[in-house]
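Notes on consecutive records. When two proteins share a document, each keeps its own sequence and its own token line. Never mix them. Below: protein one.
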Amino acid sequence: MKILVVKLGSSSVTRASGPDPRLLTNTLDSALEAHGLGWGVVIVSSGAVSSGTAHLARTGVPEFSGRLAAAVGQPYLLAIYRSVADMSGRNVAQILLADQDLRNPRKMAVIAQVLRESVENGVIPIVNGNDATDEAASDNDAIAAGVAVMTGADKLLLLTDVDGVYEHSPAVDAAPIPEINAHEIHEVTTYRGGTGRGGMRSKVRAAELAAHNGIETMIASARRPSAVVDFIKDEPRGTRVRPTNKRFDVEKRWIAGVAVSHGALVVNLAAETGIGWGSSLFASGIKRVRGTFRPGDVVDIVSPQGRLLGRGVSRTSALLVELVRSMSIEEIALVLVGVLRRFADAGTPLAATSPARPVVQNALARLDRMSPENIRTLAIEILTLYPSAAVAAVLPNGQRTASDRLLERFVHLVGDLSFIDRSRLVVYHPFAPGPAPG
């Protein structure tokens, strides 16, 4: 059975008074019709927070958190879906994805199995991020792309409150962009629009991710009742994002598109060329760091022009990458030793032992200003990477390794410190097989 993932945005799902029952009914009816055409449909439905907000305001609750709004609104959404399904003699299933689920490939594999079992048995899964428990608001566009990749979906439909992707306001442009390919989509300057969290930029990024995983994507209006069936019948109206022909194997699929990215590394031309030939990513090739991520999180790898080059699992936190980006091996070693010395001797100012580039001087000065909590976090990371050498740096003064010997030891250790190892890297634009230049 072919699979279609349909994502409904908050701006489409809800009105001022709460969930829009007509739109939700149309969407579920379309999903049931698609099933009759041989398609299983997974619905990723935003709107819990906005639905709960409307209900709590209407019932006179003066102040409340987004978490409470999500907890109140989610049952309202599911009740509408269930009532429509009951009239058709079908079942719906609710699956809430927490942030920790999205960080765990094993959990996501289990969820993928449940989703596939649902569609194979005529059950329509209703998926949403768990905004009642997560620290940050869910990006349901990214979740929809991840669901499409992990279920091996054939198509992804992102429904919103406009007819597609516009380069300017729809009031100015007569029509949306009809078609974009995966390699050009980063060049599109989109009109944000919408009342949801992500707007059009989030949808374009989700479409780009799906397209790089071989999934045809459409961004279209949720107000068109036939949008789902039109897309299935290859009669779409909106903006179509043409996919690449590449599908990744199961081991790489989680990195390639299932996990929600927690940040981005902007790389220089040398690093872009290197990862294109299958190399790991090193500090010297990283120009900028975006977002807040932890060791083990998936991050995007982006060219200076904004092109999505690939994704990988970061070995370190954003804090550590930001501290040593663009540095040489010797400079990284100096900064890592500085972190450990700062951890062991809080309050002792750090300084380079020899003339250093401004980037190193700035890093050491930043360590002097850094909170004890962040210093501790960095020190634990370094202890995890290099246990014996790091311990030698934080022992009491009389037992420590001499600074010169310790620095020499770290220079040797960090020589092969890749921030994303090639084994945990997925490249969307690899070069043809053959020897790398130079």
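Protein two starts on the next line and is unrelated to protein one.
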Amino acid sequence: MTHIPEPFTLSLPTTWSPEQAWFVHALLEDLLEQIDAHYGTAVQHWLSELDAEEEAYRERQGDLFNDDFDDPISF
């Protein structure tokens, strides 16, 4: 999977106490740190490949707005 399917919604419980909300926040931060520590380099490499593919695609498409739009129209 290369992206989160659209639309992506997440419903949070409305009954959490502030302490419970803080715990979930801290848990997610810890999870992110662990993911980054384990997969960070691979994810960065993958993202740079995606950026390169996107740039190559744009170059193949050409600049659609590079033409001078002030050219006279011949009728």
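For the record: The CA atoms of residues 19 and 25 lie 10 Å apart.
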